[in-house]
Amino acid sequence: MAKSVTKEAINRRIRKEKKRRLLMLLLQLLVILLFSAAVAAVFFGSVMIQENSMSPTFESGDRVFVNRAAYVVTGVRRGDVIAYSSRNEIDAGIHVKRVIALPGETIEIRDGLILIDGKTYIENQEFPNISKPGAAENGVKLASDEYFVLGDNRNNSEDSRFADVGNINRSNIIGKVWFIGQPVRRAGFVR
Predict the structure, then answer these.
(1) Active site residue 60
(2) Could you tell me the residue range of the domain that residue 140 belongs to?
(3) What are the DSSP calls for 26-62, one per residue?
(4) What is the C-alpha R_g of the chain?
């Protein structure tokens, strides 16, 4: 009889130990998920594209992911696609455009071509010549914290060429757009 009690006690102890290990594993998974969610909320965000000013790169209705930490270590580079707010207000809309000119540079749009500090800017992608140079027709000198942005749909975009957008201050840049998440058929990294 003593042997069966001992065996039964051992089996109870084993079951209790298995439950304890399972609970510890579940607790660890919960902590990892909460930590991941907190990191994602702080460093990453998503934006729904509302207009066609970035076509063909993005279409209206695309959901893109923004890396808010991208410019903590590195600076904004020419050709980056950024998300920015138009004003320093909480309810300001978020816009997505491509950085063309950097702080301290002079940008001019002449005969449909982009000139940066007097030199023709050759882009990595094929975009149409610009028919409306706007403010850049006579050259725009950027301050030490300003960027000049254009939509990829160059002739159908409200961007830095126009007074209601103007140059983008560094403090208004939310982050770098790096991934198209939806629709799934267009999912992939941003070029």
Answers:
(1) no
(2) 49-189
(3) HHHHHHHHHHHHHHHHHHEEEEE--SSTTTTTS-TT-
(4) 26
153 and 136 co-located in one domain: yes
CATH number of domain containing 53:
2.10.109.10
**Cβ atoms 170, 144 nearer than 8 A:** no
Query: Looking at residues 167-175, what average pLDDT do you find?
Result: 91
Catalytic residue among 53, 85, 157, 160: 53
Query: How many domains does one find in the chain?
Result: 2
In single-letter form, the type of residue at position 140 comes to V
pLDDT, tens digit, 9 for 90 and up, residues 7-21: 888 888 888 888 888
Q: Looking at 3, 60, 97, 144, which residue is catalytic?
A: 97
The reply to whether 54 and 11 lie within a common domain is no
State yes or no: is 19 an active-site residue.
no
Q: Is the pTM of this model over 0.70?
A: yes
